């Protein structure tokens, strides 16, 4: 009888859902509310990704997840807010990892945090960037940019919002005249400025660029990466369109390495190891789940999971590997040259 009892116990364990056996942290989340902080304005890529992640996080955590939107200052207001929140597992953020890296590289005083001390859960997405322009402009190809007689006017949010600094590096590599206008509240706002013809164009990630291009609102000119965009395959890369010297390639590759850090799921600093490991596991399960990936792809907001350890190493290399002279040059190009 004792043997049968042991067998029955083993059978019960084997038929218990794996998440209930393996994740006692679920008891902690039961009945609680989690805030997913989003620094993007309504309709921006960050806002869309946050709202797509919301139901998957609710399902995995067994709790209520609300999107807490705190736009402004290139999403640095939201990052500053999360920096001072308790590391209790109830505050997450979809953060602009690359923008934060650039902000640190350029000594942006608005960044009141130590980037390397946040708890990193996963990279959610990264994608090539596309220069998109007002459809009635005369810019159709890179050759048109190279022969321009007036500055290319580009709209952006802040000097390290990914759109502006990518544009600055692109202009510097191509050796063309550019004027970057900042102060727009979000990527949606400066994209609409391009749609209205207030500026010549802007630089956005491929999913956002594709949405504007499909309706004929904006036109793609070039991809700033070495690989073409999956979502805009007819748009050539900057490497295909022009013969770049080694210095130009260094600038573009440097910015691309930072771009690969992408959109990050982070938590406040100081979280205990058990909660951090649990949230990392949950994040990976969501971002590698075929059903979730298909859902994101259907909405033209594809996910591309990045391991937190590998992304952390990339962040560290991007922040500390430059010589003082090169770092000063990077700061000048991004902060001063085109404003």
Describe the structure.
The protein is an alpha/beta fold and 339 residues long. The chain has two domains: 2-126 and 260-321, D-Maltodextrin-Binding Protein, domain 2; 129-258, D-Maltodextrin-Binding Protein, domain 2 (3-Layer(aba) Sandwich). The protein contains 16 helices and ten strands. The strands form three sheets. The chain has a five-stranded mixed β-sheet with strand order 2-1-3-10-4, with helices on both faces. Strand 6, helix 8 and strand 7 (178-181) form a beta-alpha-beta unit. Helix 8 (163-174) runs antiparallel to helix 12 (246-259). The radius of gyration is 22 Å and the shape is globular. Residues 16-20 have low confidence and may be disordered.
Query: How many structural domains are formed by the residues?
Result: 2
Q: What is the average per-residue confidence, as pLDDT, rounded to a whole number?
A: 91
As a whole number of angstroms, the C-alpha radius of gyration is 22 Å
The major pleated sheet works out as: 5 strands, mixed
Q: How many β-strand runs?
A: 10
Helicity, as a percent range = 40-55%
Shape: globular
CATH topology of the largest domain: D-Maltodextrin-Binding Protein, domain 2
Percentage of residues in strands: 15-25%
Q: List the helices and strands in order.
A: HHHEHEHEHEEHEHEHEHEHHEHHHH
Structural class: alpha/beta
| Biggest sheet, spatial arrangement of strands | 2-1-3-10-4
CATH superfamily of the largest domain: Bordetella uptake gene, domain 1
What oligomeric assembly is this protein in? single chain
Low-confidence stretches: 16-20
CATH architecture of the largest domain: 3-Layer(aba) Sandwich
Helical segment count: 16
CATH class of the largest domain: Alpha Beta
Distance between the termini: 82 Å
């Amino acid at each position: 009888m004792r043997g049968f009892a042991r067998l029955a116990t083993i059978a019960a364990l084997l038929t218990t859902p794996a998440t209930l056996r393996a994740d006692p942290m679920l008891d902690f989340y039961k009945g609680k509310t989690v805030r997913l902080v989003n620094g993007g304005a309504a309709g921006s890529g960050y806002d869309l990704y946050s709202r797509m992640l919301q139901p998957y996080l609710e399902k995995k955590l067994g709790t209520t997840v609300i999107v807490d939107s705190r736009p402004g200052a290139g999403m640095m207001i939201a990052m500053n807010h999360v920096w001072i929140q308790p590391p209790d597992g109830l505050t997450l953020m979809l953060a602009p990892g690359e923008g934060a890296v650039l902000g640190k590289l350029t000594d942006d005083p608005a960044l009141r945090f130590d980037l390397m001390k946040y708890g990193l859960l996963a990279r959610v997405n990264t994608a090539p960037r596309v220069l998109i322009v007002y459809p009635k402009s005369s810019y159709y190809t890179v050759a048109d940019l190279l022969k321009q007689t007036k500055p290319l006017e580009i709209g952006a949010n802040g000097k390290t919002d990914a759109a502006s600094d990518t544009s600055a590096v692109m202009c510097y590599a191509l050796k063309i005249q550019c004027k970057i206008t900042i102060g727009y509240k979000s990527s949606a706002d400066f994209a609409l400025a391009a749609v209205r013809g207030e500026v010549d164009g802007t630089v956005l990630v491929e999913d956002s660029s594709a949405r504007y291009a499909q309706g004929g609102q904006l036109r793609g000119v070039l991809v700033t990466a070495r690989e073409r965009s999956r979502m805009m395959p007819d748009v050539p890369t900057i490497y295909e369109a022009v013969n770049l010297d080694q210095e130009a390639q260094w600038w573009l590759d440097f910015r691309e390495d930072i771009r690969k850090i992408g959109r990050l799921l982070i938590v406040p600093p100081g979280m205990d190891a058990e909660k951090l490991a649990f949230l990392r596991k949950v994040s990976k399960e969501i971002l590698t789940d075929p059903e979730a990936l298909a859902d994101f792809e259907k909405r033209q907001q594809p996910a591309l999971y990045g391991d937190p350890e590998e992304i952390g190493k990339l962040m560290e290399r991007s922040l500390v590997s430059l010589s003082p002279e090169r770092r000063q040059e990077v700061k000048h190009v991004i902060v001063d040259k085109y404003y």
